[in-house]
Amino acid sequence: MRADALLSLLESRGVRLSSRDGKLVCNAPRGVLTAELRGHIGRLKPDLLTLLEARADGAARPRLSPAQRRIRDLARLLPAASPAGNIPLGFEVRGPLTADRLAAALAAVVEGHPVFRTVCADDGARVERDVAVPVERVDLRAAADRDAALTAHVQRRIAEPFDLSRAPVLRATLFRVDDETRVVLVLTHVFAFDGRSTPLFTAALSAALAGRPTQTPAVYAELARSMGGADPAAGDFWVAALAGVDLRCPLTARPGAPSAPAGHLPVDLGPRRSAALTALARTCRATLFHAVMAAFQAALHHVSRQPSLAVGTIVSHRRGVAAEGTIGSFAHNVLFPARFPAGLTFRALVAAQRDHARKAMGHLEQPVEAALGRFEGHQRRGRLYETMCVMHHGAAAPTLIVDDLDVRPFAAPKARTAHGLDLVLAEHEGVITGELSHDAERIAPAAAEALLRAFVDVIDRACADPDVVVADPGAARPAAPPPPSAGDPPRSPHEASIAGIWGELLDRETIARDADFYALGGHSLLALTMLAAVEARHGALPTGARSAFAEAPTVATIGALLTR
To answer: N or C: which end of the chain has fewer CB within 10 A?
Structure first.
């Protein structure tokens, strides 16, 4: 047996090996270390020490996962730090919980999970050591309306963005509501956290609050190294899959990164409708997610009359036992196209989503981002992730289990949606519930409400007859011509070339050299598309190009970089 295989086997059984002053230290649950395992450890001790020392060196200079690299690049291109990636976890607690106890427990979790100490540096990434978790104390007992005061405080803290260049990517607030009740708000970010991380985090925090050691999983950086391998066919797959598909957000023709507070509409399909939808998915020989995705796409088609569209989802890319037990950012975005020819039935739409999912799962090493810059015409102006549909299964609200504390979930709303539209549903004990969130600045509440009504109507009609026709080949909305870009024209061939790329992406005939990319309707993902197109035409941009563009997102900025 090789040392790396032995180490993975031991970690899967809860055994932790470490190197201390050149000696091998072993911490194992009672009864786990058999005589055979002890023999393997003894024979491979030198190799194990070498591997553990390499791990420690790798933890200090980690490789980011593909998901983290995407999040880093998008964050660098935003004109200002955004809270859209913030993930809130809330708990209502009765019992002897103090800020010091909470801080000590969070520190233990952060020590055992290096992803919270991983930060973006100018030269890549690094893992900080001896990081303290900030825990803010807020006493609301004197407030005239405690519920209103708590809501206002929670929303304000959720709206505070993280600086991904500083550790930890975790912070908490302890609200004292009355003499018996406290509310804990823990905030992290998609850079360090995905959906599968939630139960792992609550289990680790529960153990730390109870004074039990938290199991240290495999080093996140080591897992990240095994992800994101080359897949030359990925770009070809996505270009073909999205051929001719309108990538605009169906409810708004006006682009831009989400900036306003999100609107939230609760979704509750109830036991009867949930059971009928589950049965419908089986009838269509598909999963519940495929049926939900098809219903959402059909509803978007009905309210927008857009003959083709694309909806994204989030797919976990955890591979192996070690990844399953590690808090981190392993998720990928996958885009689901839908075309609505005359006579399309709901059954056929579900089948199309099922077949696409099978093919897309074969290209998770380099997902849809591999095709950035390769789309043509209006597709390159599309906002790939402005419409999302996510389905969780058997997901209960996260909570903590600590003997001396009575803990209940506390619903902490997201201050902003990361997309134009987010439909997030969960199936728990046979009932499908969730929330439809929308960018309140660009999507009117009435439009979001109409979409939700259409979604329920599609489900009811399809459950009554899976072969109901869902396609409505109405004309796509005509987009109003954008105003010309005011200012000085490009001054050099490089600037003229860049302005041409911008004009194609932003659907504008003229682009001024000092016009702001975001003010013209751009956004962070479109900026990645634009930079990829510039590099395809002019060669690689110099180091620091993205930072320079984030500070001054103009044609002149990129033109100056190309002349260096």
So the answer is: C
* 71 φ, ψ (degrees, to nearest 5): -65, -40
DSSP 8-state secondary structure symbol assigned to residue 131: P
* Rounded distance between C-alpha atoms, residue 319 and residue 330, angstroms: 9
Amino acid at 489: P
Q: Return the C-alpha torsion angle 458, 462, 463, 465, nearest 10.
A: 150
> What proportion of the chain, given as a percentage, has pLDDT over 70?
80
**How many Cα neighbours within 13 Å face the side chain of 105?**
23
Closest CA to 298 of 421, 456, 417, 439: 456
Residue 558, phi then psi, degrees to nearest 5: -70, -35
User: Residue 32 contacts by C-beta under 8 Å, 6 or more apart in sequence?
Assistant: 13, 14, 15
Contacts of 244 by beta carbon, 8 Å cutoff, 6+ apart? 308, 339
Nearest to 252 by CA among 410, 81, 440: 440
Look up residue 48 and give its two tokens.
């194990």
| 216: DSSP letter | P
Backbone angles phi, psi at 23, to 5 degrees: -110, 150
* Neighbour count for residue 101 (Cβ, 10 Å): 16
Comparing C-alpha atoms, which of 235, 241, 363, 362 is closest to residue 308? 241
pLDDT tens digits along 217-275:
555 655 665 565 556 676 788 888 888 888 777 776 444 444 445 678 899 999 999 99
Q: What pLDDT score does 554 carry?
A: 92
* Rounded CA separation 105/236 (Å): 47
Q: How far apart are CA 407 and CA 181, in angstroms?
A: 10
Residue ranges in 175-269 assigned as alpha helix (H): 197-209, 220-225, 233-241
d(CA 524, CA 261): 18
Is a pLDDT exceeding 90 seen at residue 187?
yes
Helix (H, G, I), strand (E, B) or coil at 268: strand
CA 398 – CA 400 distance, rounded (Å): 7
Bridge partners (DSSP) of residue 118 are: 127
User: Is the preceding omega at residue 168 within 30 degrees of 0, hence cis?
Assistant: yes
Q: Where are the alpha helices (DSSP H) in 284-332?
A: 288-304, 320-324
User: What distance in Å separates the CA atoms of residue 505 and residue 322, rounded to the nearest whole number?
Assistant: 42
Closest CA to 358 of 326, 315, 392: 315
Strands 171-176, 135-139: pairing kind:
parallel
pTM score of the predicted model: 0.72
Distance in Å from the first CA to the final CA of the chain: 53
Residue 45 CB burial class (10 angstroms; 0-12, 13-18, ≥19)? middle
Kind and range of the H or E run holding 137: strand 135-139
Angle at CA of residue 88, ends 86 and 94, nearest 5°: 160
